[in-house]
Specification:
- The structure is a single chain.
- The protein has 86 residues and is mainly alpha-helical.
- It has one domain.
Length: 86
Amino acid sequence: MIQEFLTTGLGAALLLKERVDKEINKLQEHGKLGKEDAQALLEKLKTRGQEEEDKLKQHIKEALKEAINELGLATKADIEALKEDK
């Protein structure tokens, strides 16, 4: 399930990138956006995308930790603690 979610997200991100690139190229062709402005816009979008990806990863980690706690599953730390008690 998580793999499907990540694959779908990656596919959507690639599709969005293609669309953004296409639209920026159109703006450049029509003289509405210069090359430097296009590069700046792409960098800004890339930075924003990275920030959003980092937030999403953090949310996924928190959700997984919560699910593990609710299910009562042993964590790596729990297993290590048991090994040390021996």
